[in-house]
Prenyltransferase/squalene oxidase repeat-containing protein (Streptomyces ochraceiscleroticus), 418 residues
Amino acid sequence: MAITARSLAAPARRCAAALAAVVLCAAAAPAAFADDPAPAASPKLPKGLYGSTDPKYDGVWRQSLALLAQDTAGVRPADSAVDWLAGQQCADGAFTAYRADPKQPCDAKTMRDTNQTAAAVQALAAVGGHADAVREGVSWLKSAQNDDGGWGSAAGAPSDANSTSVVIGALAATGTKPESVTAKKGGKTPYEGLLAFRLGCDVEEKDRGAFAFQAKEGKLAANEDATAAAVPGALGKGFVVEPGAHAPAKTSCGEAAKDARGAAGDAADQLVSVLDAHGHHLMSAMPGAESQPDVGNTADAVVALAAAGRADAAKQSLGWLRGHSAAWAKQSGPAAYAQLILAAHATGGDPRDFGGTDLVTKLNATGPKPASAASDQRADKEQQDEGGISVWWVVVVGLAAGAGIGFLLSGRRKQNEL
């Protein structure tokens, strides 16, 4: 199985079997429900970075999710946090997991990562102010597309469902129609690439509609992680899913093989059956931890179900998360808090009162102090609605006039997606 950023970036998300992923996942999965102390801090972490652990494998990933979650919660991230993320980009537009010294240019040995790039593109598009970085990131992602229409974890790596889904989300988040991005040879679309991992009518009924991560020896096996990622991907959505989505029209098993929206609906139904079987949560796939619930993938499943219009099922799993995620999030750090915030957002829940925990405050505490909180933004809007001019707007206008720079005001993208 290929190493993907979704696996090795955060124990909270996508703990697939891969070299670096094992290091991170092993630290989180077995102890997910123990009230263990937070991991030891890593020395000399860069200014602006969220989290206190070694960012070698997940710096860009966790930073991107943190910024996205703050944005959905009405928090304007610290400039230093946004600048740190933008500063991680290579000259060709790609991102790797972490560059300890951004002044050193990326070279042939730099592991450019589609997942980290797609996550960073979504985050920078959401917070605004880095249009060039977003455009260059999308351009690099297009250049890394495989002939089957999908993406692997790196340019040239075999396509997988997770990587293809997160890239679709990045394309949609930046206003690019995923179906317009076609492979240079054969002209296949990202949706065609993703549907290649769908389990069809020739498998056991319980697995029909699920997605595999990749084919192994020419065969597809249902993978809950890949299915949760593929649902929003097939619907053209990214990490941020707005509540109130409508369910895709029902299609037959055979029709869904060529209909991405229909496939998303089938995959959501299959995911619901798995969640129900375990009491509204998913189980870990990590060796030695199979008896442990998988909190991170359950949060992903909530977002997937919300995207597919399965609101009732999504809220049931969200309810489970409210009672079982506190210790896991504390141990896993900013990406975990971000996942829970995104799950709450997708279902119309309140991330500031999540089983008695204020997820937004917890996330904010893992990095630089935000530039403004939701309450500040509401006050500014009220002043403007009453005909007044907020202090913040005066500051922005003054800076723009003094520096001669126009500010790109980016609205909330969201797709969906990715």
The chain has one domain: 5-403. The beta strands are 282-283, 293-294.
